User: Fold this.
Amino acid sequence: MPSVFLIDGIKGYVYDEIGERHNMPHFHAYYAEFSVEIYMDGTVRQGEMPAAQLKKIRDWLQDGGVAIIEAKWKELNEE
Assistant:
């Protein structure tokens, strides 16, 4: 699965959820040994990420990243 974004070593992915659907769109972000699942509003669904990297992700979301994530989510998860 290709990444949706790459910010200072933080990789973001959206996965299809066939057979394991969640109620709200979210994405996965990975940095070193850390990983989180994050909702579009920047709330961490689960996992851990250093505060500085989490801030970069949230800033990216506010600067237009939400539209990118939502488009990929719909592409992968619409029935």
Summary: The helical segments are 51-77. The longest strand covers residues 26-31. The chain is about 35% helix and 30% strand.
